[in-house]
Design a protein that fits this description.
19 helices
Length: about 525
């Protein structure tokens, strides 16, 4: 190990030590009871609510996946995805956050998303809870796998170690940390990690721009690649038989720009719909100490999101100027941020920037694992299988579930050629279509009933799988992002089934009216 690599390792070890320290700080309180462990006792302030929500949401794909897309095929895909995410973030904070905070209290002080849906419809047989918890387990396991892929790519690229070994090492660290501190530790560390992430992005883009000779040089280079800097065009790398981009005289080859029509734009912007069903974000709305503080949180979150997304996209564009032939596959392109940081910055500073990737990965994976574990331990084990289970038993089952989820995630992440952006896009669609329509209708349409809720979840999730695995293969208009048709189909099913079945009881309607009027007492 040379001196530069050693400095990078030292910086990352320091960072991880701080993260572990935060876990230890909150460990005693987190293990007090399940409400503290899963929701932090509804005690989050506006800054931590905002920053931890966005850090847990963005994950390693912000620093690797999104720049990789921009590096590989240009501006359009990355820009419209980022634009959709920014709009979705704003609308989620604006129209969902306060109503959900209030409704989760009214719904028997619900502390998990499946519990909220179940209590919202006052069900005796916990069918909604079981279905919601099952889908959370499925999609968050996939999500966690994407984080492990990020860890593996990061450590193997930095230290030249085998991908699988490094991926497993990252997964073990995430598991230990999640076991240690629970939701409060996760949220506090996410706040710190959101700062590390945005600083890492800004530092790399500023240093890289100066190094290349200014913004004009970056843009001029991008314009020379057909479709690379267009909002309605797409660069198409010329690939050889092995799937690698062809390089001649040190210059990667591109074909003619591909068309990028309005349907494709809508497909990429559909990423924003996913926010309405993202458990890791929705839980922050439920956990804030006062509903009134969500307005300040929204403003903080939007500033962070807009800056982070814009800089991440630009890093990919800039990377094509500095390292045009360094990454010759779509999967390898996701390492452009690492390449820029390690070659443009002093080793010790690069180490802290690399900690930004680790920060993004940890902040997301611990959220995913914690929510998935709560779905099984709190909602399935205690909510359905053993209703008289003690808090201690729930916590024990939660930890066993965490271990099992990590093992499954590791198996999914074994392929080092996995593209982080693609893994995340599938899980994002799953959550967005399964829970997004139901969340909106539950909060804003009084006629929504239990049958409609079940139909919405099952149809949304089912359509994601059907569209991704079968229909999209037809190409043409059917190649759109599966979240869009699945979201629409789920919404239709909720409305149709709710209208065709018995209307909600008077008690459920009274809950809805109390929440709408703001007549909800704090717990």
């Amino acid at each position: 190990m040379d001196g530069n690599t050693l400095q990078i390792l030292i910086a990352m070890v320091i960072y991880m030590a701080v993260v572990i320290g935060i876990g230890l700080l909150y460990a005693k309180r987190a293990n007090k009871n399940s409400e503290e462990y899963y929701l932090g006792g509804r005690s989050l302030g506006p800054w931590i609510t905002a920053m931890s929500a966005e850090a847990s949401d963005m994950s390693g794909w912000l620093l690797m996946g999104l720049p990789g897309v921009a590096y590989w095929c240009g501006l359009a895909d990355a820009f419209w995805t980022a634009f959709g995410l920014a709009v979705g973030t704003y609308l989620n904070w604006l129209i969902v956050s306060k109503r959900l905070r209030r409704y989760s209290v009214r719904a028997n002080n619900s502390i998990t998303l499946p519990e909220f849906f179940s209590n919202r419809f006052r069900e005796n047989k916990k069918t909604i809870m079981l279905i919601a918890a099952t889908f959370i387990l499925i999609f968050f396991t996939v999500y966690a796998a994407s984080c492990f892929v990020t860890c593996g790519k990061l450590f193997s690229t930095l230290f030249g170690a085998p991908y699988v070994s490094m991926m497993i090492l990252g997964a073990v660290f995430v598991l230990l940390y999640t076991l240690l501190g629970g939701f409060l530790a996760e949220s506090a560390s996410d706040f710190m990690q959101s700062i590390v992430m945005i600083v890492a992005l800004v530092v790399v883009v500023v240093v890289g721009t100066v190094r290349v000779g200014g913004l004009d040089v970056v843009l001029d280079n991008a314009r020379q690649i057909p479709g690379f800097l267009e909002f309605f065009g797409l660069a198409t790398p010329v690939l050889d038989d092995a799937g690698k981009q062809v390089v001649e005289a040190g210059k990667p080859l591109f074909g003619e720009a591909a068309d990028y029509g309005i349907l494709t734009v809508c497909s990429m912007m559909a990423w924003g719909l996913g926010y309405f069903g993202m458990p890791q974000v929705l839980l922050r709305f439920m956990a804030i100490r006062k509903e009134e503080e969500l307005t300040r949180s929204r403003r903080i979150a939007m500033i962070w999101v807009v800056i982070s997304l814009a800089v991440a996209v630009f890093i990919g564009i800039m990377g094509r100027q500095l390292y045009p032939d360094a990454h010759l596959t779509g999967g390898a392109a996701e390492n452009i941020f690492i390449t820029l940081a390690t070659t443009s910055l002093p080793a010790l500073l690069a180490g802290f920037v690399m900690a930004g990737i680790l920060a993004a990965t940890i902040s997301s994976s611990d959220s995913y694992l914690l929510i998935a574990a709560s779905a099984f331990a709190k909602n399935i084990f205690q909510g359905i299988c053993k209703k008289n289970a003690t808090d201690k038993q729930v916590m024990t089952i939660s930890r066993i579930t965490l271990l099992c989820l990590v093992l499954i995630g590791v198996v999914i992440a074994l392929d080092e050629n996995s593209v982080i952006f693609q893994i995340v896009s599938f899980a994002w669609a799953g959550f967005g279509a399964t829970f997004g329509p139901l969340m909106l209708f539950s909060l804003f349409w009084k006629r929504t009933n239990k049958a409609g809720a079940i139909a919405g979840m099952v149809s949304g999730a089912g359509m994601v799988f059907l569209w991704k695995l079968v229909i999209s293969g037809l190409g043409g208009v059917f190649a759109i992002y599966e979240l869009l048709p699945a979201f629409i189909f789920s919404s239709i099913c909720i409305v149709v089934v709710s209208l065709l079945t018995k209307k909600p009881s008077a008690e459920i309607e009274a809950d809805f009216e109390a929440v709408r009027s703001g007549a909800v007492e704090e717990v």
